[in-house]
Amino acid sequence: MPRLHILFICGRNQKRSPTAEKLYQSDPRFSVRSAGTSDSSRRRVQHGDLVWADLILVMERKYTARIEARFPGFENFPPIHSLDIPDDYEFMDQDLLDLLSQNVETVIEAFEAGRGAATNQEMNPFSHALRDYHTGHASAEFMIHRDDGFRQRVPASVFFSQDEFPHLEAHALDLCRGHVLDIGAAAGRHSLQLIDRGLEVTSLDILPETEVILRERGASRIITSDIFALVGERFDTLLMLMNGIGMVGTIEGLDRFLRHAHGIISPGGQIVCDSIDVAITTDPVHRAYRERNVAMGRHPGQQTLTTIYGEITGEPFDWLHIDFKTLAAHCFHTGWHADLIDMEASGHYLCRLTENARPDRRHGEATPAS
Q1: SS3 for 15?
Q2: For the CA atoms of the chain, what is the radius of gyration?
Q3: Which contiguous run of DSSP H or E holds residue 48?
Q4: I want to staple 159 with a disulfide (CB 3.0 to 4.6 A). Which of 114, 127, 139, 187 is the partner?
Q5: C-alpha torsion sign, points 360, 364, 367, 370
Q6: pLDDT per position as a tens digit, 113-149
Q7: 174-222 pLDDT, tens digit each
Q8: CATH superfamily label, 4-120
């Protein structure tokens, strides 16, 4: 297996990044370099470093913006992750070495897991539909098939359109601030709108085919990864639209996501997401499915879905529609506060989650915020 090329970055390339380079220079898994962002750096980051690197590890998040500002025309930045190590240590300080060992290994483990998943995943029906629409097939649409036989056709165009946003989506976009992580970005419907508004946006999707679409449509910061593999960087807004919180799959998945989100949210940050209260529906088909879930001991909004595009059928996956009351309760028990922002007669609602506790990173338990 080829070595992973890692570029370590700090301010002046005098203490933290050269310590990291020295720590890993003999590791057979990696080829390593270090550089700084300052004009007074011992070695300043160059264009060739970005081309060479598979992964950039910055000591603090602020260096990400400095790298991007130094190379405004560079289009293919490798993934950039922050190690969250302040400038409090001397070169080869033992405490610095310990922090580097711990934080670098955590990032590498998640990065390799995400890269492996992206490499091994076959293009699914959703990816095919997006690709075909992007390359000129305006009528491309896929089918969502629920395990009770209910089917719904979804045109691929809805993941591309910038012309008009439904009320709740428009409201959600207005709430976004700071550095936004668009989770489940797909073709970039929301990412591109926020970029046009001048916000810093990172587009995340687990499907590798979306990266090409996103980049060709104008997104520049793209991560191909499962959300649970994302570590080492923090964001001011986590955006999950088009029933995006449903990607957690199950109630257990919701709790796991809420605990994980503490590690990628900036102090004072927010999660902006939407879902559906299935108890409000009057459709007899959906009511029967809800009642079946309850009889089986599942959450009423639990769904098992399959996507179909032409002759391509994907693997079944879980999706969760969760009512606001239940969501708020799970938020409370995982260190979050939930605010209901808006709700439509259909049961579709928008909410905002903010931290009311800081997690203990070693044990995953909520402790009072300071």
Answers
A1: coil
A2: 22
A3: helix 47-52
A4: 187
A5: positive
A6: 655 443 334 458 999 999 999 999 999 999 999 999 9
A7: 999 999 999 999 999 999 999 999 999 999 999 988 999 999 999 989 9
A8: Response regulator (3.40.50.2300)
